[in-house]
Design a protein that fits this description.
133 residues, alpha+beta, Alpha-Beta Plaits, 27% helix, 23% strand
């Protein structure tokens, strides 16, 4: 069965959160980023990051899962959701088009992790990691 796509919105506790989070909240958000970077590395997240809306910033992600329950489970296990710091919404979506990963993907790697040759987006000669070639 083909994977389905879901748009997730991570909702912070206040409109000014990105600008005035406490050190404890910042530490918790680092856990969130590490968690989502792990999902990204596993191929479960196509894109994620903060949306810098001046009225009320939020986090977004496009998830690729078997069904809504699986995608919802990933969000429910986010450390910031489990603690009650953030909440989320999730909606099914249709991906009309997408581009291959760029060098910016390296920013999603957990701290200290390095891309292997078959994960390096700048090396067009290397087959994708999930390729049978």
């Amino acid at each position: 069965m083909a994977k389905k796509h879901f748009y997730a919105r991570l909702i912070p506790p206040r409109a000014t959160f990105a600008a005035d989070m406490t050190e404890g909240e910042r530490s918790h958000m680092r856990e969130h980023v590490a968690y989502f970077a792990g999902l990204f590395q596993q191929g479960k997240v196509l894109i994620f990051g903060p949306v810098m809306d001046p009225a009320y910033g939020f986090g977004m992600a496009v998830l690729e899962a078997e069904d809504l329950a699986e995608a919802r489970g990933w969000l429910e296990n986010d450390p910031t959701v489990r603690s009650g710091l953030n909440s989320f919404t999730i909606s099914p979506m249709v991906v009309g088009a997408s581009r291959a990963a760029t060098a910016d993907v390296a920013h999603a790697a957990p701290a200290g992790a390095a891309l292997t040759d078959d994960e390096n987006p700048d090396d067009a000669s290397a087959p994708p990691a999930n390729s049978a070639a």
